[in-house]
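Re-running Phosphoenolpyruvate-protein phosphotransferase to confirm reproducibility after the cluster update. Everything else is unchanged from the original entry.
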Amino acid sequence: SAPRVQRTFAGQGRTADGVHVELLANVADPASAKAAAAAGAEGVGLFRTEFLFLGRPDEPGVDEQTRTYHAVLDAFAGRKVVVRTLDAGADKPLPFLTAEGEPNPALGVRGLRTAALHPDVLERQLEAIAAAAARSDADVWVMAPMVATPDEADRFVARCAAHGLAHAGVMIEVPAAALQARWILEEATFASLGTNDLTQYAMAADRELGALAELSTTWQPAVLRLVAAACEGAHVAERAHEDDRGAQGPRERPVGVCGEAAGDPALAPVLVGLGVTSLSMAPAALGDIAAVLATTTLERCRRLARLALGSRDAWAARQAVRAALPELD
Ligand code: PEP
Ligand code: MG
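Result of re-run:
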């Protein structure tokens, strides 16, 4: 028989001692979703829906949205697809949604905050996501960008529930949300750490400015502490409900990472050691991340996490972890 085509990665991400770490893809449209499926991604950890909205004068209609979302879901039948609702504003301004002349757009009305001023745009998007989900076999999860408070998270989950979308979560990319994850994950059923923005806001360093690249890295121990705090908050939220659930077992509140950090082979095991259970990245990175996890036990990931957290700065954290992972050289 013909030789099988070699894939970048296939199967499941696992540590050396067999702990499953979901290896997911970041996608933006049907074409990138198909490419991610061909690369062997277990699912989609971040579908950036704003790409359908960018560069046009007005909002795409519900039917057009439904068709595009369905085409992405179709590439991942039977698998998980995390659809992020519109993340407009700041680096992704939209003429029909983004306020002009905000002095600090990164701190302005962006992400889920736009839904307070334009609730109809979110409603139509949720309607389209629900319609696409109803026609597909994918396991559809929905999440909101730029959530800062438990109230914002609760309101979003309620809107998703009204559309029959039961798996509703939030991105944690604002430091306050990382610190309040315990309450944010009362109603929200999962969280995904947007380490690009989380780093920008923790370090007060514009992610677009090359001049600040040394500050803008998730290797900053202060950023890793926020990751750890979010994972700990999720565990507290899980345990708080163990008693009421009894025989049904503990409530799950998985925390993933969908920022660039997830695709860094030295940082990925650190994130797993901090308590992250899925990593979503550019498909090209899947093979390298699968390989490093396959040689690293969960205990070793935790040791790497302690090394990074205990370091004085980003440079030292990266040095210490790289020295403890000689197989990456
Ligand atoms: C992030 O902020 O890390 C993220 C994944 O979202 P985006 O890069 O689209 O802002
Ligand atoms: Mg972001």
